[in-house]
Amino acid sequence: MIFEALSTAAMAGLAGYAYLRTKGMSSDTNKIQMIFKNAGWQGRGGETIRLQRKRKIESGTEYVYQLPLGFDRKKIEENLHILEDGLNVRSNVLDFELSNLKELKFDKTIVQQIQSSFKPKRKQKEIEIEFDGMLKIRVYNEKMPSEMMWNETLLNLGAWSVPIGKTRKEWIYHDFDKAKHLIISGSTGYGKSVILKLIVTTLLTQQPENVELTLIDLKGGSAFHRFKDCRQVRYFEREPDKAVEVLKQTQKEMNKSFVDVVDKGFEDVKEAGIKKRHFIVIDEAADLADNKKATEIITDIARRGRSAGYYLVFCTQYPTADVIPSQTKRNIISRLCYLVDTDIASRVVLDEGGASELPDIPGRGIYKCGPKRYILQSPIISNSKIKELITPYIVKKEGNDEQKERGQTTKNRKYTLVIEEDGLSD
To answer: How confident is the model at residue 74, as a pLDDT?
Structure first.
């Protein structure tokens, strides 16, 4: 009799709790609507953002909203932290999922079971947004993994695509034959050098016979030094003044390729059936910002390189309008940005905010390619794995140690490129 009474009381309590949840009490549904209101996110005539439906997804819930006409969804996309902060306000409300009922055993321990099923809300929620005509807000009860290790299943042999990172749902690849160039930015220690090494290693491994590389490492050579003796590396330089000469030589070769392709009536090397691709990878482009000749060549590569098969990877930890010229940006639709210190820096790279609000996690970034925008975690590739993958392509270059130390490289492994000062770097 006592057991039956306790069971009845317990079930009545659960029924009451379920009623409160269905009425929106202590629910994320109510909180999101309140955040919309408090943030002033509404139509021009005061129309509210209306919830159309919601559904359970893996590790969370998806809410689908109808936006008022004329509402700029970027207000939400760029201020995602307002949603996250609001949903993560600490509460003394206990959390109980009705699905927990399935696990209850109706015996004399029922009360203890129910008590242990109620747990304080302590999990940090994370938010993801997508727009496809409707605004989709995904609220996750578990954090995205903060570390992602690279593995060989990510290779796509014969392709020009490289893994940029993984969202909660899928791996995102940057395909250089579709979006020819890429801008990468972010504060020191948040993943730029790691992703650059991964990009170079992937290209070498997937297209060893067709890829050529110009590596300009203006951070002292720390990122690219391991690649300089690979036979696919046409030029390697780590001094700003000599880097200008390398860019000039690369531009000459690009011009020849451009003429060869266009004069034969083709739009680009892909249409022409040319397999070779040349990548100009610049780490710390800010060191070239004051050199007019260098910026002119970089802009020219961004503008005409796509047809000639010359692709630019432009990387800097100082994203300002001076470092990333507007003409260069306009020709590069793909950007990858890790954590930056200001909203202005985020807008310089992405043309929108958001990167300054990323969590303090190395490798967590925002990747934009045209209208598509992803929050992802970039993979880590170890230096030992890089060495293993590129060792088959390392050759002994001609020229003495002094020449190699100054960054002078061989051209086609036959002739040494001699760099002469002509005052153009001033």
So the answer is: 82
Q: What SS3 class is residue 166?
A: strand
Q: How far is CA 67 from the centre of its chain?
A: 27
Taking only the tens place, the pLDDT of each residue in 136-159 is: 999 998 889 999 999 999 999 999
Q: Phi/psi of residue 180, each to 5°?
A: -65, -35
Per-residue pLDDT tens for 268-299? 999 999 999 999 999 999 999 999 999 999 99
> Residue 84, class by beta-carbon neighbours within 10 Å (0-12 exposed, 13-18 middle, 19+ buried)?
middle
Dump strand ranges (E) for 94-232.
94-95, 119-120, 126-131, 135-140, 161-166, 171-175, 182-185, 211-217
Among 391, 367, 397, 363, CA closest to 379: 363
- What are the pLDDT digits (tens) for 338-364? 999 999 999 999 999 999 999 999 999
Q: Mean pLDDT lowest for which of 4-18, 26-40, 219-233, 391-405?
A: 4-18
Q: What pairing do the DSSP bridges indicate for beta strands 415-416 and 135-140? A: unpaired
Tokens for 385? Answer: 């794995």
Residue the block writes with tokens 């990878």? 281
- The structure tokens listed for 389 are 């993958």
Q: How confident is the model at residue 326 (pLDDT cuts 50, 70, 90)?
A: confident
Q: Which long-range contacts (CB under 8 A, 24 or more apart) does 89-98 make?
A: 90/121, 91/26, 91/121, 92/120, 93/26, 93/121, 94/118, 94/119, 94/120, 94/121, 95/119, 95/120, 95/121, 96/14, 96/17, 98/14, 98/18, 98/21
For β-strands 277-283 and 211-217, DSSP reports them as parallel
Q: Which domains does the chain have, with CATH numbers?
A: 2-140 (no CATH), 152-416 (3.40.50.300)
Question: pLDDT at position 115, please?
Answer: 64
Burial state string for 123-161 with b = 16 or more CB within 10 A and e = fewer than 16: eebbbbeeeeeebebbbbeeebeeebebeeebbeeeebb
Give the H or E element holding residue 96: none
Q: How confident is the model at residue 302 (pLDDT cuts 50, 70, 90)?
A: very high
Q: Where are the alpha helices (DSSP H) in 263-373?
A: 269-272, 292-308, 326-330, 343-350
At residue 376's C-alpha, the angle toward residues 370 and 377, to 5°, is 140
Q: Cα separation of 342 and 357, whole Å?
A: 9
Q: What does the alpha-carbon distance between residue 251 and residue 143 come to, in Å, rounded to a whole number?
A: 45
